Amino acid sequence: MRGTGEQLQYILRDEAMHFSFGLKVVNQILEEENITLDPKAVRDMWDESEAAETAYANYILRDPILGYSAEYHSEQFRFVANRRARTVGLDEPFPGAKNVSPWLDEQATLRKEKNFFETRVIEYQTGAQLEW
Question: Which range marks the domain in which residue 94 is found?
Fold first, then answer.
């Protein structure tokens, strides 16, 4: 599992960059086209996304793993959804949701100075060498 934590950091960094870019694009479109969001349509999207995320969590985590369950995953989703909503100036869709993964926030906001393509590979193992 060497390097797994580092890969998760890259994923979190990319997620934050994608959100930031998407937010700028959406805000620019709303401003240029003078669009006002329909609160009911936005609420319906929040409800649909929560249902999809909960179904995913219940499917993938039928049996909880150490320190992580479907409810834990769903609660973190609600917390992040609230933060995203505040960022775009909307009311929180899931008031009272708790940040059950403060370590995840810490990882997402850390500055990552190294470039993925500049890191040095320290170990290789080919498929022919794997022992099953």
Answer: 4-129
